[in-house]
Amino acid sequence: MAEASPYAADALIPHTVEPHPVTGIxxxxxGIWLFLASEVMLFGALFSTYxxxxxxxxxxxxxxxxxxxxxxxxxxxxxxAVLITSSIxxxxxxxxxxxxxxxxxxxxxxxxxxxxxxxxVIKYFEYTHKFELGHYPSHDNFYAVYFTLxxxxxxxxxxxxxxxxxxxxxxxxxxxxxPERWCSWxxxxxxxxxxx
Length: 196
What we know:
Layout: H1 8-11, H2 27-56, H3 67-70, H4 73-98, H5 102-132, H6 141-168, H7 174-177, H8 179-183
Helix pairs in contact: 2-6, 4-5, 5-6
């Protein structure tokens, strides 16, 4: 049996599962809330900029017509449904961990990743159509805002695919060694009752 390092305690990150005495919540949960707050600020600034540009423009979109005549509303509606469905499958994957069901977690998280790819494929067709018409971000403020907001959202979706693919594959090994930390919040999991 290998001898434990006298410095092993120094390598542990405290308060990953139990609440930190100052904040009252685990560090991982605090980190997620800080990340979400930064996302709200980023997108809040972008949407505020959009509102200022739109309200000061004499006509929106600048080339005339209605936004619904320029944008593919049915395709955008399908993409919205895909995003909402992926939110549901993400919550179901997390709930599956709470119910100590790793195979079900993998099913739902895999579904979330697949839906993210569906979103990106739909966005690809939307962008391709715009480019074929010669509409680029430099065309006018309407397209600059459109491509900035939807492009940044696409980058976020790609980031989600990367993180969730890690959690689905190599990261899920933590389920066997540190289930409480894996769930972010206590899962009340015993070694005998875990699935997978």
